[in-house]
Amino acid sequence: MPPLAMNKTTIPCLWGCVVEYMLELDNDDKDSYWCQSVFDGCGSMSLSFQQRNLHTKRIEVIDDPVNQDVLKDAGVANFLYSITRVRRNGLLWLAPPCSSWGFLPRSKSKRSAAYPQGSNVDGWVLWGNRLADFTANAILTATALGIYVVLEQPSDSCMPHYGPVQEALEVVGARRVAVS
To answer: Minimal CA–CA distance to 83: which of 44, 56, 60?
Structure first.
């Protein structure tokens, strides 16, 4: 998702004022990153970036369930602060959990390309939808700030068809790349 779309992309309304404030804070180079990874699990992507001397900020709920849970206000604030510290032309790596979005759990999640939101009574599916909503906002925010975005999902994932994610991907002119 090229930052070339940055002039066509706006930061989501709920995040806009916070991002503007964060950008006004002192932002010297010692506090800036080349990469930010969100939903990094065991940290393999962050470690890979660090090994290539790319200063990286990692946000992962298992590291800090209070301040790094992006479904809570503190986690969103932490994300917004750190995304404003990623250098222009830097990278945001998003790898939201795909457990309810793939092919295997479809009998339980009731997700499909035509109905990606899935079951509206299953807490596990609703949790996945909330993470996807965050992901859509993160894609738009990063692109508006001139940051490249990678959304890591399996090829059979329904997440790219989920309304807010699909709209965000279209707005930023995303391209799909399969790696085997």
So the answer is: 56
